[in-house]
């Protein structure tokens, strides 16, 4: 049996961020003893992933960014576009490997933090703490006891919900033979894609140079596609919409993020807590997680250093979650046209305000005015219907361990 103050299961965005915040102790406080437990390298270890978020121009992770954009574009299905600046916010892209390298360099300077490579099989309460059990990379049994355990592993099944859609996507990191991208302009949503019967689809283009970009095809719908369908959608968007006839696929990544009004318990025992996606950090209406995971980590660290029980806070306000539940139901029922819904919002609401809204950072009066820009009758009908709907067990499994995306190195040339 090994003893430590805090054990963090999973070293993805949520786990690394929490360790980092705990060690960034205020004056007069010290970093607690931390065991950061991650899966050994191999099939159970998540591959490199891409995270996107928006925040003020100067952020603490800026040195690790793969790209940042001050202008965003949203295209409606008919091709009309809204181009705007979200200032003082900035849209940012961060690769998980760069984030891990940056945070690990900071944690390596702290002797009270140690890394443990093990496949965790069980986390359970014990008197005065909790125990993490698993198998190490060498095949030895792990039994690690801690005062507090924070578990970021995705849930195997989702909690009961009234509505569950899937945000599923595949992205190509492409390189073209001629300059076709505008490096300072990102396509946040391009709805010139075939729309599913329930939900919506869009393309996403994040250029890093005139020749290089992440081009992604995304759907919000009930079921995922096969890899060939995603590739065909990507190839069609590049050739028919962007006019790119020759390109090379450097890497590809693919994933599934549940979009659900399920309630995610943040406490799994007296001394065991869930963080990240498992703790409700993913915004149901957008799938964005990284910024909420940072807020969650800061709040946990603050509570711990003040001597309080470090229960993870709710990542999103009750008001935000209620509005998301309405939107998801309206989208899944087909009462609203998803592409027209989002395109209309970006056309009617200032970009900065809408991004704050999507991050749950707007006031109630701003939320009310934004609500008036949506299809009011279908939304009110959905509001009236929701309390009558039962929360049913989900048949949807969550993403592979470590996060919602998977990536494979791949080279393909389109001519």
Q: Give the overall average pLDDT.
A: 92
Anisotropy-based shape: globular
- Relative helix content: 25-40%
Class per helix and strand makeup: alpha/beta
* Total number of beta strands: 17
The tally of helices reads: 9
Series of H and E elements: EHEEEEEEHEEEEEEEHEEHHHHHHE
Please outline the major beta sheet.
8 strands, mixed
Unreliable stretches (pLDDT < 50, length at least 5) are 399-415
How far apart the termini lie comes to 59 Å
* Percent strand: 25-35%
What is the CA-based Rg, rounded?
A: 22 Å
Adjacency order of strands in the biggest sheet: 6-5-12-13-14-11-15-17
Give an overview in words.
The structure is a single chain. This protein has 415 residues and is of the alpha/beta class. It has helices at residues 13-23, 96-107, 227-241, 290-305, 318-333, 338-348, 351-358, 364-371, 376-385, and strands at 2-9, 34-38, 50-56, 65-69, 71-75, 81-84, 89-95, 113-126, 129-136, 141-151, 164-176, 185-190, 200-207, 212-221, 247-260, 272-274, 405-414. The strands form three sheets. Strands 6-5-12-13-14-11-15-17 form an eight-stranded mixed beta sheet, with helices on both faces. The chain has a five-stranded mixed beta barrel with strand order 1-2-8-9-10. A three-stranded antiparallel beta sheet has the order 3-7-4. Helix 1 packs parallel to helix 4 (290-305) and helix 5 (318-333) packs across helix 9. The relative contact order is 0.18. Residues 399-415 have low confidence and may be disordered.
């Amino acid at each position: 049996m090994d003893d430590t103050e805090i054990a963090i299961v999973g070293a993805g965005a949520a786990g690394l961020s929490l360790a980092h915040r705990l060690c960034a102790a205020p004056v007069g406080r010290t970093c607690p003893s931390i065991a950061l437990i991650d899966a050994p390298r191999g099939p159970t270890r998540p591959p490199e992933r891409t995270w996107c978020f928006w925040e003020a121009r100067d952020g603490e992770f800026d040195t690790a960014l793969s790209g940042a954009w001050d202008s965003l574009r949203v295209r409606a299905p008919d091709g009309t576009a809204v181009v705007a600046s979200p200032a003082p916010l900035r849209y940012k892209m961060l690769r998980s490997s760069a984030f891990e390298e940056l945070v690990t360099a900071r944690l390596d300077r702290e002797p009270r933090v140690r890394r443990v490579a093990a496949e965790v099989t069980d986390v359970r309460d014990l008197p005065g703490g909790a125990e993490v059990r698993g198998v190490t990379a060498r095949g030895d049994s792990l039994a690690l006891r801690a005062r507090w355990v924070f578990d970021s592993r995705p849930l195997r099944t989702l909690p009961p919900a009234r509505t569950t859609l899937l945000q599923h996507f595949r992205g190509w990191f492409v390189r073209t033979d001629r300059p076709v991208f505008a490096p300072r302009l990102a396509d946040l949503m391009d709805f010139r894609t075939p729309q599913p019967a329930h939900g919506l689809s869009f393309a996403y283009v994040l250029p890093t140079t005139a020749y290089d970009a992440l081009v992604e095809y995304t759907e919000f719908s009930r079921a995922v596609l096969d890899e060939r369908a995603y590739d065909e959608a990507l190839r069609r968007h590049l050739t028919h919409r962007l006019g790119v006839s020759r390109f090379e696929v450097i890497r590809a990544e693919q994933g599934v993020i549940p979009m659900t009004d399920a309630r995610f318990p943040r406490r799994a025992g007296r001394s065991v807590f869930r963080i990240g996606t498992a703790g409700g950090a993913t915004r149901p209406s957008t799938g964005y997680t990284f910024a909420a995971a940072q807020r969650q980590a800061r709040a946990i660290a603050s509570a711990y250093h003040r001597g309080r029980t470090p229960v993870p806070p709710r990542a999103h306000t009750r008001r935000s979650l209620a509005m998301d539940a309405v939107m998801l139901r309206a989208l899944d029922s087909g009462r609203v046209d998803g592409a027209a819904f989002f395109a209309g919002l970006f056309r009617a609401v200032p970009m900065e305000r809408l991004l704050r809204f999507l991050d749950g950072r707007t006031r109630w009066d701003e939320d009310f005015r934004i609500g008036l820009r949506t299809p009011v009758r279908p939304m009110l009908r959905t509001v009236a219907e929701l309390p009558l709907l039962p929360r049913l067990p989900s048949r949807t499994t969550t993403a592979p361990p470590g996060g919602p995306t998977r990536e494979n190195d791949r080279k393909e040339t389109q001519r």
